[in-house]
Design a protein that fits this description.
The complex is a heterodimer of chains A (117) and B (148). Chain A is mostly helical and 117 residues long. Chain A has three helices and three strands; from the N terminus they run H-E-E-E-H-H. Chain B has 148 residues and is mostly helical. Helix content of chain B is 53%, strand content 11%. A three-stranded antiparallel sheet of chain B has the order 1-2-3. The chains are: A mainly alpha (117), B mainly alpha (148). Chains A and B meet through helix 1, strand 3 and helix 2 of A and strand 3, helix 2, helix 3 and helix 4 of B.
């Protein structure tokens, strides 16, 4: 059992090293999404909580319920976008099937409200 | 050994199903925002107090971001606790050696000491009244506690 754990830990360290070298070149992987009218913008991390949530002054007019719903919608979209970008970034160093299995699904279509550089 | 591994595999599969649905609900310390989040940082429910909106758009963004982070950390910790319960502490420690410390452990053994949100109030100091050396007893009765 200890050998298995040690082997798993070593494999994780190897992948981690490959990933961190890759990310050091490409920068941290984040996703971004905005409401069509720019009311809410979310910068998300893959598999983690949002890094930044921006709310416009006019968004406050949506009221607490409407704004909460819009933040949830945009945050989900930003996280999907982050997962997709992580998949694209890492598919050269990690088996893409494993990435999909981990929940980092590559999006087919990135619409205009998806990630923009 | 094979049977033990089979048990563990089943425990792991059950655990994966449990963790996928593990969420935690956290209210921001200011009481103006409540978030239910999964261990992956997905927001499952979000409640904003009307008073939060009055603090302006920037405050809304920051408070929601912070509350989602707290709820995610709580969900990750709950996942670790479920794992320790299902697989035993030894296995949980093994997983931590691979995946990193649980939020609870990182919080209680922080690499850098946490900075208090509020500046610690200085201890109240009152200057001690100087001892008056006065041989004159009348002076004592005029000012029995040495006040000037």
């Amino acid at each position: 059992m200890d050998d298995d754990v040690e082997r798993a830990a070593r494999k994780v360290r190897d992948v981690e090293q490959a990933v961190s070298q890759h990310v050091a070149r490409s920068g941290p992987v984040t996703g971004r999404a905005s409401s069509p009218d720019g009311a809410v913008t979310v910068v998300a991390t893959p598999g983690g909580p949002p890094r930044q949530i921006e709310v416009s002054a006019s968004a406050l007019r949506m009221g607490p319920h409407g704004l909460a719903a819009e933040i949830m919608r945009v945050a989900e979209k930003a996280q999907r976008n982050a997962a997709s970008r992580l998949h694209q970034t890492l598919e050269r160093v990690v088996d893409p099937r494993e990435l999909t299995e981990l929940g980092f699904v590559r999006e087919r279509d990135e619409d205009e409200f998806g990630w923009r550089r | 050994m094979a049977a033990v591994n089979e048990d563990r595999m089943q425990a792991v599969e059950q655990l994966q199903r449990d963790l996928a649905v593990t969420t935690e609900t956290v209210e921001h310390p200011n009481g103006l925002c409540m978030v239910t989040a999964s261990a992956k940082g997905e927001i499952r429910a979000l409640h904003l107090h009307p008073a939060l909106l009055q603090q302006g758009p920037r405050a809304v963004g920051e408070i929601v971001t912070e509350t989602v982070r707290l709820a995610t950390n709580a969900a990750v910790q709950t996942s670790f606790n479920k794992m320790a319960l299902a697989l035993g502490d030894g296995m949980a420690i093994d997983v931590e050696s691979i995946a990193g410390d649980s939020p609870f452990r990182s919080t209680w053994n922080p690499v850098a000491p946490p900075k208090s949100a509020a500046e610690a109030a200085p201890a109240e100091r009152r200057p001690r009244a100087p001892i008056v050396e006065d041989p004159d007893e009348d002076a004592f009765f005029e000012n029995p506690f040495g006040r000037r």
